[in-house]
Design goal:
The chain has helices spanning about 5-40, 55-95, 115-165, 170-200, 210-220, 225-230, 245-265, 320-330, and strands at about 205-210, 235, 240-245, 270-275, 280-290, 335-340, 345-350. By secondary structure, the chain is α+β, with helices and mostly antiparallel strands. The protein folds into 3 domains: about 5-100; about 135-200, Signal transduction histidine kinase, dimerisation/phosphotransfer (DHp) domain (Helix Hairpins), CATH 1.10.287.130; about 205-350, Heat Shock Protein 90.
C-alpha cells in the first residue's frame, strides 16, 4: 500500500473517530447535566461534604470519560474502517483491470446477511467481468484472424488476375472467390455494427404491423446460396400471422438463427421452421439436425463473443446470437435453445403487440 493511500485511510479513521467521539461527548454531557439537575433539585440526595463539590466531580467525570472515549473511538473506528479499506482496495483492483479481485469480510461481520450478500454480489460481478474480458480477448484474436483470412485471399487472387495469362475458367473461379470473400467481410462488419446498434438501443422504435410468416420466408430465400450449397431441405408449413414489431430488427433475428442452423446442419439435412399461435404471443421454432451444443455451453451461447466451438474451426464470431437475444428482449420476448438427440432447436416467443400499441 503506497504512502498516499495510507494517508487517506488514516484520515478516514480520524473522521469516523471524531464522529464517534462527538456522539459520545453529547451523550456524556447530557448524562452529566441530568445528574447535576437531579442533585440540584434534591431528587438525589448526597452527603453534605460532597454536595458543594458536585460540579467539579461532574466536570472530572466528563473529562475522564471523554479521554477514554477518544481512545475507544479511535480503535473502534480503526476496526470499523478495516472492511471499508478492504472493499476500496478490491474495487481499485477491479477498476485497474485485475479481475482476480475478490471481496471477503472477516469474522463476525461476514456472518451478517447484508455483508454476506455484498461479498457474493461483488465476487460474482468480478467473475463475470473476468469471463467477459476473456471472451472479448478471444473474440479480438479470432475476429482478427477471420478478418485477415479473406483479405489475404482477395489480395492473392487479385494478383493472379493482374498477371494475366489465365483461362476464362480460371478467371471466373478467382472472381468467384474474391466475391465470396468480399461478402464474408461484409457480413462480419455488418454483424459488428448491428450488435453495437442494438446494444445502445433501450427503447423499441419504428413499430409497425407486418406479416411475420412472409418475413421468415423472405429470410430463408435471402440465404438460398448458403443452403443450396449444402443441399439442405426446408420444412416450412405454417399459416399467415401478423405482428406489431420493428420489422428491420426482427429480420436480423431470423437471418442469424437461420444462418446458424445452416452452418451446423450436415449436407443434405433438413431445417424445420414452425410458428405456433398462442393467445397473446407467437412462438417461432427453428430446428436443425447435426452436432449438439455441449451442455456446458448452453447457458452462455447468447453471450457476446462466446463460441461453443473453442477451437474456432467453424464459421462465426460469437455475435449473431447476442444480437438475437438483445432484439428479442427489446420486443419483450424470450429466446431459448434446446439441443439433444442430434437436434438443436431455437424458440423465439414474441408478443403480438407492444405496449401502447393497439392491435
Amino acid at each position: 500500500m503506497n504512502k498516499q493511500k495510507r494517508k487517506h485511510y488514516f484520515a478516514l479513521t480520524v473522521l469516523i473517530s471524531i464522529i464517534f467521539f462527538f456522539i459520545q461527548f453529547i451523550i456524556t454531557s447530557i448524562t452529566a447535566l441530568l445528574i447535576y439537575l437531579l442533585v440540584h433539585f434534591q431528587v438525589i440526595t448526597l452527603d453534605t461534604s460532597i454536595r458543594p463539590n458536585i460540579g467539579i466531580i461532574i466536570l472530572y467525570m466528563i473529562v475522564i470519560s471523554n479521554l477514554v472515549g477518544v481512545i475507544v473511538a479511535y480503535f473502534s473506528s480503526y476496526i470499523s474502517v478495516r472492511p471499508i479499506r478492504n472493499m476500496i482496495y478490491q474495487i481499485d483492483r477491479l477498476a485497474s483491470g485485475d479481475f482476480g479481485a475478490r471481496l471477503h469480510f472477516g469474522w463476525p461481520i461476514s456472518k451478517h446477511p447484508t455483508f454476506s450478500k455484498l461479498s457474493r454480489s461483488f465476487n460474482r460481478m468480478a467473475s463475470e467481468l473476468k469471463n467477459t474480458e476473456m471472451l472479448r480477448e478471444d473474440f479480438v484474436n479470432n475476429f482478427s484472424h477471420e478478418f485477415k483470412t479473406p483479405i489475404v485471399s482477395i489480395a492473392g487472387f487479385a494478383k493472379l488476375l493482374r498477371r494475366g495469362n489465365l483461362t476464362e475458367e480460371q478467371k471466373e473461379e478467382y472472381l468467384a472467390v474474391i466475391e465470396e470473400e468480399s461478402l464474408r467481410l461484409s457480413d462480419m462488419a455488418t454483424n459488428v455494427l448491428n450488435l453495437t446498434r442494438v446494444e445502445n438501443q433501450t427503447i423499441l422504435t419504428d413499430i409497425v404491423k407486418f406479416n411475420l410468416s412472409e418475413q421468415i420466408r423472405s429470410s430463408i430465400l435471402l440465404l438460398a446460396d448458403k443452403w443450396e450449397k449444402k443441399q439442405l431441405n426446408f420444412k416450412v408449413d405454417f399459416a399467415e400471422y401478423g405482428i406489431f414489431a420493428n420489422e428491420e430488427l426482427l429480420k436480423q433475428v431470423w437471418i442469424n438463427l437461420l444462418d446458424n442452423a445452416i452452418k451446423f446442419s450436415p449436407s443434405g439435412g433438413v431445417i424445420e421452421v414452425n410458428i405456433k399461435n398462442q393467445q397473446n404471443f407467437l412462438s417461432v421454432s427453428i430446428i436443425n439436425s447435426g452436432e449438439e451444443i455441449p451442455a456446458a455451453s448452453m447457458s452462455r451461447i447468447f453471450q457476446k463473443f462466446y463460441q461453443a466451438d473453442s477451437s474456432h474451426s467453424g464459421e462465426g464470431n460469437g455475435i449473431g446470437l447476442a444480437i438475437v437475444k438483445k432484439v428479442v428482449e427489446l420486443h419483450n420476448g424470450t429466446v431459448f435453445a434446446q439441443s439433444e438427440n442430434n437436434l438443436t432447436m431455437f424458440t423465439v416467443t414474441l408478443p403480438k403487440s407492444q405496449p401502447n400499441v393497439k392491435a
